[in-house]
Amino acid sequence: xxxxxxxxxxxxxxxxxxxxxxxxxxxxxxxxxxxxxxxxxxxxxxxxxxxxxxxxxxxxxxxxxxxxxxxxxxxxxxxxxxxxxxxxxxxxxxxxxxxxxxxxxxxxxxxxxxxxxxxxxxxxxxxxxxxxxxxxxxxxxxxxxxxxxxxxxxxxxxxxxxxxxxxxxxxxxxxxxxxxxxxxxxxxxxxxxxxxxxxxxxxxxxxxxxxxxxxxxxxxxxxxxxxxxxxxxxxxxxxxxxxxxxxxxxxxxxxxxxxxxxxxxxxxxxxxxxxxxxxxxxxxxxxxxxxxxxxxxxxxxxxxxxxxxxxxxxxxxxxxxxxxxxxxxxxxxxxxxxxxxx
Length: 342
Fold this sequence. Notes:
CATH superfamily of the largest domain: P-loop containing nucleotide triphosphate hydrolases
Order of helices and strands: HEEEHEHEHHHEHEHEEHEHEEHEH
Structural class: alpha/beta
Number of helices: 12
CATH class of the largest domain: Alpha Beta
Largest sheet: 6 strands, mixed
Number of domains: 2
Strand content: 15-25%
């Protein structure tokens, strides 16, 4: 387990997490966050402001937000590394204040910063983290063998981690959290700075874990991978939950104000001034062969767009109203202004 609580080294025997998890069905709530407020000492505002979020067992949830949106604070409270000012957090029906040891054993945290001993081998790292989790003897060796095979590290398991590529280190970082077999995994930017092949391998591993019923909370600034990997998406901004649902739900619900038209390249110079002059169009970008209009009401303005093009004997090759993908939806909701935080 990767929460690194100080008392883990002295606890004699952990809760048998795998047995606990097997008693739950995929229709049950794995995580129930209700009206949680998180605020750091001497901060002028709450980092998390009355957030409620439910995640069903077996779901891969993508947790998104600009820098400073509150993602780290929310994950810290979920992992019991920080106490909420108010509100409640339940994991498989347990609250930390009532069942601290059992609660900790339900969550495996994979931090963004690599938490590995670089001068030890992968096998030695797994042994250390396994013992921290309370594993020993045959059970420890069985879980180590599973982790090495799951991450595809068989050929390098006895090499020092300092010799590993970034992708190998990320894969090892992930499986150390799997040693005690927790039903919930929290992954903070697990694919930062690695090659596409390693990213693909990690995604396949996560899909396999999800199929076994594990619940995964996944944060990433790579919106395309969240789009491909996650069953549901939650978006935070300025400490508040501003959207949650599947990709399809978010695309349908938060369409934005744009109309995107694709033309033959030679038609762009004729179409652009016509479209820019239309009522209700307050901004336009041209990136041949695309023209994107920002309007006050895209569905209301669409007939006049088509009518103006028809008069000029222009016909777009494709036309789309609203957000094309998760990135556009994300920017529609959170804006395009840079969010620089220390």
